[in-house]
Amino acid sequence: MTKQQPTLLVTGGAGFIGSNFIHYYLEKYPDTRLLNIDKLTYAGSTDNVREVETLENYHFIHGDITDEVLVGDIFTDYDITGVIHFAAESHVDRSIKDAKAFVASNVFGTLTLLQAARKDWENKGVLSKRRFHHISTDEVYGSLGETGAFSESTPYDPRNPYSASKASANMFVKSFGHTYGMNVVISSSSNNYGPRQHAEKLIPTVIQKALAGEQIPIYGDGKNVRDWLYVADHCSALDTIYHQGNPLETYNVGGGNEKTNIDMAGEICTILDELVPQYRTIESYKDLITFTTDRKGHDRRYAVDDRKLRNALGWKPTEDFHSGLRKTVEWYVNQWKARPVH
Ligand SMILES: NC(=O)c1ccc[n+]([C@@H]2O[C@H](COP(=O)([O-])OP(=O)(O)OC[C@H]3O[C@@H](n4cnc5c(N)ncnc54)[C@H](O)[C@@H]3O)[C@@H](O)[C@H]2O)c1
């Protein structure tokens, strides 16, 4: 890819949502020049972007967003017209064991990008025109009781080190909007599901354990509630927010699908019973579900009110929970079948 032409910078594009976004974006806007910087932590893989890597207008940089020199050089070498920032440590359980990497990548990494963008865009006199979009999470709002939903004005109340690092990053992003007049926007989504998610997360874990005939671990009583958003719908929401969202605003993105973890696992097992009865040695994959010691500080319920995005910007998801979950399970089953040994 030749340098000094208008280029969109995506961070963390070898991870779950970032790689889905790159596929979505390059298919929808095939003329966009897109630069993907990713450190390739345990959670990132170039396999996730294999289908786009030969495109002329796509370029991958294996690098760390906390590397100030590298990030500064990217802005000097390329004409970065916008940033869509996914790169982060993303697994709550790991943050509970050790939060340092979360502060480094999620907070310092975000600050490093903000500073480099600000410097370059100020020099070019385009600071208020070029967009910096931070991808955040509904977890920054804390935990809910049986009813209600987080709105964009719900005060931050992070309950675990991961969500604390994301709330902190959000604050820095907002502060750069207020202090320097940067054109920043934040989207806070609920739990994503779909293809290319790391095996450590709930849905891939349930599917893979079931197919392997191993116990399917569910935390606590399984009654924790999450709102589930199909990743392709998240990508279309990000496209909408990146292009149409107002500067300094936050937009919640939800799937409108609240499920307890135990119901979610049960639905996956029902789909697997139908799709792949041949790997089953028991009557139903559901028989493999087992309850384990609860996660420390396990937030009970998340739900987002995303009427601002739906009403003001006209976004709506295309998948309902059943169609999205079926597509997801089919994708993992196909991956499983394609494995050389199982
Ligand atoms: N997965 C969800 O359900 C969810 C929900 C809401 C918000 N988010 C947010 O969306 C973003 C993407 O989440 P995901 O689930 O795709 O995460 P992921 O863990 O699958 O991917 C993160 C990617 O970032 C890269 N990365 C991490 N630290 C880096 C660094 N210092 N420099 C460069 N690259 C680095 C990793 O290598 C990986 O490819 C995150 O910011 C996360 O907080 C995720």
Order of helices and strands: EHEEHEHHEHEEHEEHEEHEHH
Poorly predicted ranges: none
CATH topology of the domain at 6-193 and 231-254: Rossmann fold
Please state the structural category: alpha/beta
CATH H level, superfamily name of the domain at 6-193 and 231-254: NAD(P)-binding Rossmann-like Domain
Shape: globular
- What is the name of the CATH architecture of the domain at 6-193 and 231-254? 3-Layer(aba) Sandwich
Mean pLDDT: 95
Strand percentage: 15-25%
* Percentage of residues in helical conformation: 40-55%
Q: What does the radius of gyration come to?
A: 20 Å
What ions, cofactors and ligands are bound?
Answer: nicotinamide-adenine-dinucleotide
Strand element count: 12
Main sheet overview:
7 strands, parallel
Name of the CATH first level of the domain at 6-193 and 231-254? Alpha Beta
Explain what the structure shows.
It is a single chain. The model has no long low-confidence stretch (mean pLDDT 95). This protein has a domain at 6-193 and 231-254: NAD(P)-binding Rossmann-like Domain (Rossmann fold). Helix 1 (16-28) packs across helix 7 (231-244) and helix 6 (202-212) crosses helix 8. By secondary structure, it is an alpha/beta fold. Helix 1 links the parallel strand 1 (6-11) and strand 2 (34-38). It starts with 5 loop residues before the first strand and ends with a helix. The protein has ten helices and twelve strands. The chain has a seven-stranded parallel β-sheet, with helices on both faces. 40% of the residues lie in helices and 18% in strands. The site of nicotinamide-adenine-dinucleotide (NAD) has 31 residues, from helix 1, strand 2, helix 4, strand 5 and strand 7.
